[in-house]
Structure formats: structure tokens, C-alpha cells
């Protein structure tokens, strides 16, 4: 493919491409024939799923972009994207308990660089009320989220010991990591087509999934793992973790989901097929298990982009049958 000019519609200029094989000029966007930029469409859906009425969502679009969106147009966008934006299943129920400003709890974390921890209170409480999550141990997840915005050891994050930079050689003899496509890859395909600055890919995808899907409960979740935590895993639980810690490891989980009876730790990795972030995800799972009191059995780890999704059970890497 090569670039072949641009097409101007009513509100934006669209990049066109030429296929050298079939000699056809095309627009690669998944959602086509839109008079408005896709960012406007996605923000409209997000405003609506945050609990705003359709009239308020149109008003917020007018304030942000200076564009007047027809009521029928907004309704069509909501209906068209509802198969992917599944939060619509319990949006009305959430509105009874949370106003738009209350729906998402936010904390700005100055951990050498700025991170924005966000937690969706309605989804978290709804998902943890399901039968498979009614065990009292799952309340540890809620307590840990509350601690992030209240009494949290932020001083631990002022060191350079990052989990994403730690190399560990785990035994993958019993681990199966198949490649697949799922709802996360489809959402990435949808959202990333509207992102023009590659530095904003993570945040755009995180925020859209947090507001609009039905299982993402938090983003940029801080975690830390202390040397005594590693001793607990190795000596008390008899795990095999090929790592020695002399100081605290820290990190931030991109996306946290609750689905299929498990806590899913997700990391967005451009060119996921070439990446192998096993150590980073393993340390995330170990740390979150220790911080919340949940078993490692309750976690699943994954990394993905718009084309590929890879997942594994962290317990399989440290506890052999």
C-alpha cells in the first residue's frame, strides 16, 4: 500500500491509500461514510455511556468540538456501535445509583511520570455481585482500589526498579499460549483508527474500553512487589519463581477486566505477535495477588493489539503438578 492523496468531507480530511496489487484506492477506516470525524463519534458514545442523556451528550459535543449533531444521528451511532460497546446492557441500571461525575473514580499518580488511575465503580460492583464472584476474598480488590485514592505508599514508586524491565526465565513447559482474536482486538481495531498520534494509543484505547465495554473495571492500576512477598510465594506456597529481589518492584497494569470467573490482567502491546512480556505480566499477577489477597488461581494474563490476543494462566508458570 502507498498513500494516495486525501478526500475532504464535511468536517475532516481523510487519508486515502492505493493497493499496488489490485490498483484500487480505498479508505482503511472500519466505520466509513461518516460526516463527522471518528473521534467525535467515539466521544459521543462515551458521553452517553457515562450516564449523560442524549441531549446532554449533544451539548457536550457542541462545547468540545463546536459541532451540532442531529439527535437521530447520535441515536444511529449508539445503535451501530452497541454490539461492541456492551456497557449498554446495564447502563440504565448504573444511572440509578451513579451520576456521570460519580461513575468513574480517578486519581493522578506522580510516579516519576504521571499516571491516571481510573476505576469504573458501577461495573466493578455489578460484576462482583455475580454468583461466581460472591466469595468474600474478592472484596480485597475493592479495598485495594480504595487504598489507591486514600492511604497508598506512593514513595515506593520513586525508584527505577520497574517490573516491565525485569527479566525472568520462567518454565513454559506446561503453559499454552495460543493466538486468537476476541472482543479486545475488535475494540482496538475500532478505536485506533481514530488515533493520529501513536503516543496516545494506550490512553485512547484504555479510556474507551473503561467507559464502553462491559468487563473493563480499571486502568493504570499501580502495583508493587516486595522481597518479603517473594519469600511468601517461594516458601509458604511452594512456588518456583526464578527471581531474587533486594528492593521493591513497581509497575502499572494497563487494563484490568473481570470476566468468565477470573480477574484478567491485560497489556496493550503494538506488534503483539513479536512481543513476549511474560515476566512483566507474571510480576503484575504476583503483586496483585499479594496486594488483594486473591489467589493466583483467580488471575489470567494477556497482551494484545488490534490483530492478535495472547493469554496464559500465571499459576501454570510457578506451580507444576
Number of spatially distinct domains: 3
Shape estimate: globular
Percentage of residues in strands:
15-25%
Compute the CA-based radius of gyration: 21 Å
- DSSP helix fraction: 25-40%
Q: What is the total tally of β strands?
A: 11
Mean pLDDT, nearest integer? Answer: 89
Task: Tell me the series of helices and strands, N- to C-terminal.
Answer: EEEHHHHHEEHHEHHEHEEHEEH
Low-pLDDT windows of residues = none
- End-to-end separation: 50 Å
* Count of helix runs: 12
In terms of structural class, how would the helical and strand content be classed? alpha+beta
The major pleated sheet works out as:
8 strands, mixed
Cross-sheet strand order for the largest sheet: 4-5-7-8-9-10-11-6
Describe this structure in words.
Helices cover 35% and strands 22% of the residues. The chain is built from 12 helices and 11 strands. The strands form 2 sheets. It has an 8-stranded mixed β-sheet with strand order 4-5-7-8-9-10-11-6. Strands 1-2-3 form a 3-stranded antiparallel β-sheet, with no helix packed on it. The longest helix is centred in the C-terminal third of the chain and has 15 residues. The radius of gyration is 21 Å and the shape is globular.
Short summary:
It contains twelve helices and eleven strands. The chain is α+β, with helices and mostly antiparallel strands and 321 residues long.
Question: How is the topology of this model organized?
Answer:
Blueprint: E1 2-8, E2 13-18, E3 25-26, H1 38-49, H2 54-65, H3 71-81, H4 91-95, H5 100-103, E4 104-111, E5 113-120, H6 121-128, H7 139-148, E6 179-180, H8 183-192, H9 201-212, E7 216-225, H10 227-236, E8 249-259, E9 262-268, H11 278-292, E10 299-304, E11 309-312, H12 315-318
Parallel strand pairs: 9-10
Antiparallel strand pairs: 1-2, 2-3, 4-5, 5-7, 6-11, 7-8, 8-9, 10-11
Helix pairs in contact: 1-2, 1-3, 8-9
Amino acid at each position: 500500500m502507498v498513500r494516495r492523496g486525501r478526500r475532504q468531507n464535511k468536517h475532516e480530511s481523510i487519508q486515502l491509500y492505493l493497493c499496488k496489487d489490485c490498483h484500487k484506492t480505498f479508505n482503511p477506516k472500519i466505520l466509513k461514510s461518516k460526516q463527522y470525524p471518528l473521534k467525535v463519534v467515539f466521544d459521543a458514545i462515551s458521553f452517553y455511556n457515562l450516564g449523560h442523556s442524549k441531549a446532554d451528550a449533544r451539548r457536550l459535543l457542541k462545547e468540545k468540538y463546536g459541532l451540532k449533531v442531529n439527535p437521530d444521528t447520535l441515536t444511529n451511532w449508539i445503535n451501530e456501535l452497541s454490539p461492541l460497546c456492551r456497557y449498554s446492557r446495564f447502563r440504565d441500571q448504573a444511572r440509578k445509583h451513579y451520576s456521570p461525575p460519580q461513575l468513574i473514580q480517578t486519581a493522578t499518580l506522580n510516579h516519576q511520570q504521571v499516571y491516571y488511575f481510573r476505576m469504573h465503580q458501577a461495573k466493578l460492583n455489578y460484576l462482583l455481585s455475580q454468583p461466581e464472584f460472591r466469595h468474600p476474598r474478592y472484596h480485597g480488590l475493592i479495598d485495594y482500589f480504595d487504598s489507591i485514592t486514600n492511604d497508598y505508599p506512593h514513595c515506593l514508586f520513586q525508584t527505577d526498579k520497574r517490573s516491565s524491565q525485569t527479566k525472568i526465565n520462567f518454565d513454559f513447559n506446561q503453559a499454552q499460549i495460543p493466538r486468537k482474536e476476541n472482543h479486545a482486538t475488535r475494540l482496538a481495531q475500532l478505536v485506533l483508527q481514530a488515533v493520529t498520534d501513536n503516543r496516545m494509543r494506550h490512553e485512547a484505547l484504555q479510556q474507551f474500553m473503561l467507559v464502553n465495554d462491559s468487563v473493563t473495571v480499571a486502568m493504570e492500576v499501580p502495583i508493587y512487589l516486595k522481597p518479603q512477598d517473594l519469600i511468601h510465594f517461594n516458601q509458604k506456597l511452594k512456588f518456583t519463581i526464578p527471581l531474587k529481589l533486594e528492593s521493591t518492584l513497581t509497575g502499572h497494569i494497563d487494563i484490568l477486566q473481570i470476566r468468565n470467573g477470573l480477574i484478567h490482567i491485560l497489556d496493550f502491546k503494538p506488534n503483539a505477535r513479536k512481543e513476549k512480556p511474560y515476566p512483566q505480566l507474571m510480576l503484575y499477577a504476583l503483586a496483585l495477588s499479594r496486594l488483594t489477597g486473591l489467589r493466583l488461581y483467580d488471575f489470567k494474563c494477556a497482551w494484545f493489539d488490534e490483530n492478535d490476543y495472547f493469554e496464559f494462566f500465571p499459576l501454570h508458570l510457578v506451580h507444576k503438578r
